UniProtKB/TrEMBL annotation:
Name of the protein described by the UniProt record: Phage protein
Superkingdom of origin organism: Bacteria
Length: 206
C-alpha cells in the first residue's frame, strides 16, 4: 500500500496489507483491533487475539487472585488450565475472551483475600503485572497500549502524580479498605505510599 492510500486506518486497509504482503501500519492495526473487539462483543467472532485477555488475567493476579480462584468465578470449576492458556497463546476462542472479561468486570475492584494472597502478590510483582487501576482509561485490547506504572522514569516523583496517588490511597482507606488492600488496588507498595504521605505532610507543615 502506498502511504497516501485512503484505506489506511480501516479494516479494508488491514486486508490490503495482507494481500500485498506489506507490514500493517499502526493505524490499520488499531482498526483491526477495534473490528475484532466489536465482533467479540457482538458474538460474531470465533477466534480473537489473546493480549487483552492475558492483560486482564495478569491484572487480577496483581490483586492477589490465583488462577484456580479465577477459573471458579468464571464457571470453569477448578479447571484453571483454561486461564493458563491465554497467558501463552497468541489467539484464543472468543468465548474464553468473553468469560474472562466477565470475571474481570466482576473482580477488578475487589482485592483478593485469604492465606495465599501474599504469595500471589509477590508473583505478580516479580512478573511486573499491572493491577486494574493501572489500566484505568486505557484500552487493554490495544496491543500498543501500556499501563500506568508508578515507577515509570517519566512520572516517578512528579508532585502531581504523588499527590493524586496519596489522595486516592487516603480515600480508599476512608471507604473502609485496609491500607494493604488500598495499596494493592493502586499498584503501589504500601511503604512507598506511607513515605510519600509523610513527605506531603511535611511540606504542608513547612
Amino acid at each position: 500500500m502506498s502511504p497516501d492510500d485512503p484505506r489506511h486506518g480501516t479494516i479494508a486497509g488491514c486486508s490490503a496489507h495482507l494481500r500485498t504482503k506489506t507490514p500493517a501500519c499502526d493505524a490499520c492495526k488499531r482498526a483491526k483491533m477495534r473490528y475484532e473487539k466489536q465482533r467479540l462483543l457482538a458474538g460474531g467472532a470465533t477466534k480473537v487475539a489473546a493480549h487483552g485477555t492475558r492483560r486482564r488475567i495478569q491484572a487480577l493476579r496483581a490483586l492477589g487472585y490465583s488462577l484456580r480462584e479465577l477459573a471458579e468465578v468464571g464457571g470453569w470449576g477448578s479447571a484453571h488450565a483454561a486461564f493458563k492458556y491465554p497467558l501463552i497463546a497468541n489467539t484464543i476462542t472468543a468465548e474464553t475472551a468473553r468469560r474472562v472479561l466477565k470475571v474481570y468486570n466482576r473482580l477488578s475492584m475487589t482485592p483478593a483475600s485469604g492465606p495465599r494472597v501474599g504469595r500471589n502478590l509477590r508473583l505478580a510483582r516479580r512478573n511486573g503485572w499491572a493491577p486494574p487501576l493501572a489500566w484505568e482509561g486505557i484500552d487493554m485490547d490495544d496491543p500498543t497500549a501500556e499501563p500506568w506504572r508508578p515507577d515509570s522514569r517519566r512520572r516517578v516523583g512528579r508532585p502531581d502524580v504523588v499527590h493524586a496517588r496519596v489522595e486516592d490511597f487516603d480515600w480508599l482507606v476512608s471507604q473502609g479498605e485496609s491500607e494493604e488492600q488500598a495499596a494493592v488496588r493502586l499498584g503501589v507498595r504500601l511503604d512507598t505510599l506511607r513515605d510519600q504521605r509523610r513527605r506531603l505532610d511535611g511540606q504542608a507543615v513547612a
